């Protein structure tokens, strides 16, 4: 705590995991003997660098870049890049730490890493975003590689940014390799990667509902926050599974559409011209817009899928969800629930699917993109989507089995932490003290 006292998000992520690992440590004295806990919370490497670029008016801008190479026990570092003004070392470390266990849960050979910058792409021209990405990759390229560290997208890093980053890597290294995932389909990207996190979240939720409650999305009212990559494709799949999604949001506010969100309108606003969600209510009769994003949790629903950002559901929002009848919270965003919110879910017996399991579909398909790049072939959408569905269903099964083995039957959170941890811990013990 002393060492990372200025990194509250990182400490929050670590404590949540450590709280559930006690029975595992008791059963495996070799973890303690090999200092596994002390080692797993310390990144193998943190790279922090200056990113200088020139804006459209000719002014020099300076941002800070990060890459946290957290753990490589079970594969090359793997995790997204986030461009957002709130990015700092503690945020990237929380995301990197979560990523270790998430990647382990996918069953694919990927270690944990994360990176990004405090650069804010909002309001920047394409040319400015390109110059920033080129400057960012000019430094990052010396630290990554297809067998070392394979970054992907995250908040504000989508197809456009990955394209610019890949181009600059290739130009500097003179090497055409699968060094990034989430690439365009013309240059090594995988079908179904764009949809993977949102679709995977719904496959996970559907399977957890089936196994634990003998229930499904059919006929349910769903509240989803965000309107980015994860939110859009979670909405699409929840609708396909028979649910009515009634909200969408961004950092300014949320829309409530009692008739069910028209996803083509959201896609046109967000993917078409990077607009604000407020526009939805101007275009769709019967929809309401409300300023402030946290109000979205006061909308009555059966299932809530937070898909925007960390700590977006606090205790008060969790209480509001429960009061209005919500029975299920599965997390598309990383760590969207505060510890107090999780305590509210647990006290009220909600089905709670934690991020590191529920949103693992994105990195799972990134792992499949790496396999396709190595084979130099491309699978069809149906093939990749079927693999994704299988992975999400096995995450539910494996986490419930781990929970049962360690006396936490039915606990998806404890199960995810335990199942993710044990594989990495065993690899760390086998490879010696490093
Ligand atoms: P996008 O950039 O596509 O979308 C982010 C959405 O969240 C936008 O609607 C954005 O609104 C909103 N948002 C971002 N920051 C805040 C904030 N501080 N307060 C309120 N709203 C905010 O990102 P993704 O959809 O890719 O990522 C969303 C979440 O899912 C993140 O937690 C990410 O780590 C997680 N995730 C993403 C994966 C992926 O494959 N993309 C994989 C696994 C997890 P605005 O436009 O106003 O900023």
From TrEMBL:
Organism superkingdom: Bacteria
Signal peptide boundaries: none
One GO BP annotation of this record: glutamate biosynthetic process
UniProt keyword annotation of NAD present: yes
Gene Ontology CC entries for this record: cytosol
Site entry (Important for catalysis), positions: 154
Pfam family name, one: ELFV_dehydrog
Alphabetized GO MF terms: glutamate dehydrogenase (NADP+) activity; nucleotide binding
Coiled coil: none
Family of this protein: Belongs to the Glu/Leu/Phe/Val dehydrogenases family.
Protein name: Glutamate dehydrogenase
Organism: Bifidobacterium oedipodis
């Amino acid at each position: 705590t002393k060492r990372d006292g200025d990194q509250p998000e990182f400490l929050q992520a670590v404590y949540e995991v450590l709280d559930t690992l006690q029975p595992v440590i008791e059963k495996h004295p070799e973890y303690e003997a090999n200092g596994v806990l002390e080692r797993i919370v310390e990144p193998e490497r943190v790279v922090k660098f200056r990113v200088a670029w020139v804006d459209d008016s000719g002014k020099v801008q300076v941002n800070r870049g990060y890459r946290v190479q957290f753990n490589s026990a079970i594969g090359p570092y793997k995790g997204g890049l986030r461009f957002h003004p709130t990015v700092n070392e503690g945020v990237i470390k929380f995301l990197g730490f979560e990523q270790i266990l998430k990647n382990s849960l996918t069953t694919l050979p990927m270690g944990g890493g994360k990176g990004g910058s405090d650069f804010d792409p909002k309001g920047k021209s394409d040319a400015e975003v390109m110059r920033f990405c080129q400057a960012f990759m000019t430094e990052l390229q010396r630290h990554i590689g297809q067998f070392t560290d394979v970054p992907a997208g995250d908040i504000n890093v989508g197809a456009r940014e990955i394209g610019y980053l890949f181009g600059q890597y290739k130009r500097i290294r003179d090497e055409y390799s699968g060094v990034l995932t989430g690439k365009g389909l013309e240059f090594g990207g995988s079908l179904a990667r764009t949809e993977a996190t949102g679709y995977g979240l719904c496959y996970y939720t559907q399977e957890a509902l089936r196994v634990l409650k003998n229930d499904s999305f059919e006929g349910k009212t769903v509240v989803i926050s965000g309107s980015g990559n994860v939110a859009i494709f979670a909405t699409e799949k929840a609708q396909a599974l028979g649910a009515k999604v009634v909200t969408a949001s961004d950092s300014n506010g949320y829309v409530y559409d009692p008739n069910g969100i028209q996803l083509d309108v959201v896609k046109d606003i967000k993917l078409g011209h990077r607009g604000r969600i407020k526009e939805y209510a101007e275009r769709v009769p019967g929809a309401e817009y409300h300023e402030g994003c946290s109000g979205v949790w006061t909308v009555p629903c059966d299932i809530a899928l937070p898909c925007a950002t960390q700590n977006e559901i606090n205790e008060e929002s969790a209480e509001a969800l429960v009061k209005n009848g919500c029975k299920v919270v599965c997390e598309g965003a990383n760590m969207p629930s505060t510890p107090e919110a999780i305590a509210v879910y647990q006290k009220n017996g909600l089905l709670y699917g934690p991020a590191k399991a529920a949103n693992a579909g994105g990195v799972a398909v990134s792992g499949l993109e790496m396999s396709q790049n190595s084979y130099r072939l491309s699978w069809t959408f149906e093939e990749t989507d079927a693999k994704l569905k299988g992975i999400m269903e096995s995450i539910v099964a494996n986490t419930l089995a781990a929970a049962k083995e360690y006396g936490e039957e039915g606990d998806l959170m404890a199960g995810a932490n335990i199942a993710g941890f044990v594989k990495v811990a065993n690899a760390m013990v086998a490879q010696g003290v490093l």
